[in-house]
Amino acid sequence: MINDSIYTFILIGIGGTLVLDIYAGLLAKFFALPATNWRLVGRWVGHMKSGQFYQPALPKAEKIPGELAIGWVVHYLIGITYGLILMVCVNTQWLDLPTILPALLVAWFGIVAPFFIMMPGMGAGMAGAKTPNPTVTRIKSFAGHTVFGLGMFLTALALA
């Protein structure tokens, strides 16, 4: 029974990530807001195996073989992780009648990771402080996490 729940929450994390990717694609297509460059995420993660956790100028860092694939895999593994965090935050009965608030809260609390780990590690500063427009970076990240939370909720509803 618990194994089935684990798989369900993994699917919920994947579904939330897929909804986020659709949203990012629509923003890029209709509003010219570029989506996250998963190649650079892969480059950042790829350099970690040699002990380089901080890249002050990531686009100029040495390319990593398979960095685009690495970035996409990391992206979906993060989504799965948030799905499993959601599982820890709710009981398995939530799967029978999902509510939106737990999914949103996990997604919103999850913004700590990009603000204080990924962005600084990739040279963008705390909460995107070193980006060309930190306010837009922060709003875009919060909106993306909100869409991700909504996506987890919708996936849970579809699976209920």
TrEMBL record:
Keywords: Membrane, Transmembrane, Transmembrane helix
Family annotation (InterPro entries): DUF2938 (IPR021329)
Domain of life: Bacteria
TM spans (from-to): 6-33, 68-88, 100-121, 142-159
Name of one Pfam family that matches: DUF2938
Protein name: Membrane protein
Lineage: Bacteria, Pseudomonadati, Pseudomonadota, Gammaproteobacteria, Alteromonadales
